[in-house]
Design a protein that fits this description.
2 strands; transmembrane helix; DUF2231_TM; about 80% helix; mainly alpha; transmembrane; DUF2231 domain-containing protein
């Protein structure tokens, strides 16, 4: 599963979804948490991103694991495999942080949507969830950068003079 798309390794193609949707989730979740007056306008987009971004991260992780196995089977040097392992380590963390951000963002959407079967929570609950969302968004964005940077180094270091 997730080995090839039209004869090309799937991972370099699939990561584009993660590279787009995860930072958009980070940004959308922060704006939703910090600017309440925009919630009605961007809530639907943040909801979609809270679902799509973790799926994109998971697909990138799975396709990356498959590509790593192919590189090992093809006899790539240990130096390259070590770089790929570092990249995979960052990617795994990115997946988990993205999943956590997606879940907490969904919780924030639920408690702030104005239509709920339960009474409105105290303001401190909304503030606490907002702080968690912002913290997770920042950490997730950092790991997206680290993952992409380490992947680019693994691919291009030594390939371009």
């Amino acid at each position: 599963m997730l080995n090839n798309i039209l004869g090309i390794p799937a991972h370099p193609l699939i990561i584009h979804a993660a590279v787009i949707f995860i930072p958009l989730l980070c940004l959308g979740a922060i704006v939703y948490a910090v600017v309440p007056r925009f919630r009605g306008k961007i809530g639907w987009a943040v909801l979609a991103l809270a679902v799509i971004a973790p799926i994109a991260a998971w697909l990138a992780t799975e396709s990356g694991e498959n590509l790593r196995e192919r590189l090992i089977a093809a006899g790539f040097s240990q130096d390259i495999i070590d770089k790929v392992n570092q990249h995979q380590s960052y990617g795994d963390k990115t997946w988990w942080f993205t999943l956590a951000l997606g879940v907490v963002t969904l919780v924030m959407l639920f408690i702030t949507n104005g239509v709920r079967p339960v009474p409105q929570p105290p303001i401190w609950v909304t503030l606490a969830v907002s702080v968690v969302v912002i913290a997770l968004a920042v950490v997730t964005a950092i790991y997206v950068f680290l993952t992409g940077d380490s992947g680019a180094h693994a691919v291009w270091e030594g390939a371009v003079p």
